[in-house]
Amino acid sequence: MLRSDGETVRLSLAELSDLLAGVFAASGVAPAQAAILGDNCARCERDGATSHGVFRIPGYRASLASGWIDGRATPVIERVAPAFLRVDAQNGFAQPALAAARPQLLEMVRACGVAVLAIRNSHHFSALWPDLEPFAADGLIALSTVAGLACVAPAAGARPVFGTNPIAFAAPVAGADPLVFDLSTSACSNGDLRIAAREGRPLPPGAGVDRAGQPTTDPDAVLDGGALLPFGGYKGAALSLMVEVLAAGLTGGQFSHEVDFSGHPGAETPCTGQLLILIDPSRGAVNAPAERIAGLLQVIRAAGVERLPGDHRYAQRRRSDRDGIALAHAQWAELTACQLPS
Q: What is the predicted pLDDT for the residue at 342?
């Protein structure tokens, strides 16, 4: 599908996945893991999550080049209970650790009705929804949290303690795409903060503070020693604290404030932990849960809601599948140049 329309190059998902896998491999990532990361990043770009797509590639490469991440790490999987799996990512990426654990997770949830995955010593630099959507497509309910790099101050605080600490949820919907949402517990994501700074756009009021702890809408002031704020004040801060407990305290990963890559110039990825909970909804409902969820969504739409979680992403996915994933010529050329010579 690779084609040019003058200002952009348009690629299929497979073409972009292969291109990005080549970039990861050239950056020192093992081939199988490079394919997983390339596919993950390409799916984000395809679905319009550009703050977690190609935009992230320089951060991935810089982190690898600095020695902060082991791109060839082999996850160590340990089953510690019938429905509890523990994975040490060995300072590697979280997505390959999840992929390695997936077969056992599915066996556990089918046998026990629930399954818990605790990943530690892992780097997660992407959106969370690509981790969960495949489980919902298999008829499961999935919930995941991941800690990050301290860049968010607690409500009424002046210094960063929390990461953006996202929470993601996915559930099957009869006759439709899964219900999937992925939200940071900060007023905006770190990626959106950096994009706003790059484009010279202000942040919404209440999104951040400067280095003196004063409210600011200037993204550069937030990046220069300031901090993002939780959404919803104390309520968002409580959710962010919950994520720290689940994704770091429970898993054994580092809390966000403990992440320190000062000895690795250029590094950007947080080495923390991720928790994933899977539920077989057929064990909880006396009748078809996916049909019940579909009916609930119909009621919400009938109440006047025009856009439910995931609608925008699925619409963009259909456009990308039809028209190709658009990259600026400069982006495409840079990515092509980053691959290993054939």
A: 57
Return the residue matching tokens 């970039």. Answer: 23
What range defines the domain where residue 19 resides? 1-65+310-342
User: Any idea which residues carry the catalytic annotation?
Assistant: 51-52, 192
Cβ contacts of 118 within 8 Å, gap of 6 or more: 84, 85, 86, 87, 250, 251, 252, 273, 274, 275
Is there a single domain that holds both residue 106 and residue 245? yes
Find the mean pLDDT for residues 73-90.
98
Rounded mean pLDDT of the chain?
95
Q: What is the pLDDT of residue 34?
A: 98
Do 315 and 303 belong together in one domain? no
Residues 6+ apart with CB under 8 A from 189: 51, 164, 166
pLDDT at 1: 54
> Has residue 214 been placed in a domain?
no
What strand order describes the sheet that includes 3-4? Answer: 3-4, 8-11, 325-328
Are 191 and 173 spatial neighbours (Cβ–Cβ below 8 Å)? no
Taking only the tens place, the pLDDT of each residue in 111-169 is 999 999 999 999 999 999 999 999 999 999 999 999 999 999 999 888 999 999 999 99
Q: Which residues fall within 8 angstroms of residue 196, CB to CB, at 6 or more apart?
A: 188, 202, 203, 219
DSSP string over 113-174: SEEEEEEEEEE--S-SHHHHHHHHHTT-EEEEEE---S-BPPTT-SS--B----EEEEE--T
